[in-house]
Amino acid sequence: MFRKVHHRLTLLCAGITTFLLLTMSLTYLYVSEQGLKQSHFLSFQRDIGTLIANFERQTLITHTWLSQMESYNAFTISVTDNGIPLLFNERERDEKRRITEQEALEYYRSHFSAASPDTARKSYHTEYAFTSSCKEDYYACYAYIPYENGETELLILSPVRPLNRQIRTQRIRFAAIDTAAVCLLFLFSFFFTKKLLIPIEQNRLEQIRFVAAASHELRTPLAVILSCTGAIRGHNGKKALPEEEETFLNTIYSEGHRMKRLIDDMLFLSQADSHTFSVHPEPIEPDTILLNSYEAFEPMAAEKNISLRISLPDCAMPPCLGDRERLQQLIAILLHNAVSYTPENGSILLSLTYGKSRKADPDLRRRHDSYTISVADNGIGIPDEEKAKIFRRFYRSDQSRSTKEHFGLGLCIAEEITQSLKGSLHVEDTPGGGSTFLVRLPFKEPGHSSDSHG
Ligand code: ADP
Asked: Is the CB of 341 under 6 A from ligand 1?
């Protein structure tokens, strides 16, 4: 599917850029050809002006002078004196040239003679472009020059072939450059769209992995529930004894709860993905929230004989803006993990520090006053190579795979919450062994504008 989308995107991207490129280059080519044609015609007119001025200055027109003018300007000149052609080049004149001159004269008569000035005794000349019957383009000039005893008519022809050749060469160059550019555009579009699709493809694979892992996690409690119900109903021919039924019902109840917890976690993450879960800022006292969490987890820690301690700032922390529920959820995830991954007789320290940040914190991006919540345990610790992986969805390190309580979603949720509160979450080693999770959150005084996630 992605290959198809990639090819379509490549075509679309290259198609649009090719269209723009071709439109631009064709417009440029057209303007440049028009300019070339205009400047050639102007230069023809200039040369004709000089030639006729010279011609009028001559008292005697010699064959040599006319031949020089012809070869100097690359013109063919035919002169008629009082209606009689001057034969200076008549011998060399071939049939084709004679027909072309005839056509040029006819063209002039049919298109311009009516508009010619009423020239009793005045000279004039008209320059024009025409195409011969042999499909050759010419610039032509008809000139009328009167003198004392009569009149001279000149027909000057200049082939446009060199200009056409120049235009053709220019077109070929443009075509070659455009073809190369289009190929490059296609190549560029191919790699560009491929790069563009990588995050989408990764996201899709992530989703597939997420669904597969979620299905796997749900299958186990569901299988247990089904087998317990089967046993109670006597599906395999042997109905459970009344005293066994109670055990099966308890198992069904706890597995049902386990499924509910997992579904709640997945719903939370899906809301985070679709940016639909929101943060409700209100004035909170982080030290009070920490104290509440501490009290909530003390019995759980005591059950494992773990010493859970709390450290709060000496002077009471002023209230700040935050989301009480999210913060409690975040601390609960970290404390639950700390208790789970710390062996019996271990210790956990929950602490809160608050202060003005003197240097810019790269994670908070701005110079904020911040407060830090830390959960430090002296438990099994997290190897360096796993520190980045533990924030992935459904990731659990080997030691904890068998623990039914954990799905590998806790830290993803903790990270989502921290991000929604515009803070940062880090893990580092506790000096002497174990892990320390640090949550840095911006301190916003009540009265600040509220932020919401989604
Ligand atoms: P889980 O539900 O498995 O705890 P989490 O996302 O909370 O999922 O944690 C992911 C993994 O990170 C855990 O499986 C565990 O290997 C590791 N981990 C988390 N907290 C701790 C901790 N305090 N000490 C050691 N390992 C931890």
From this structure: yes
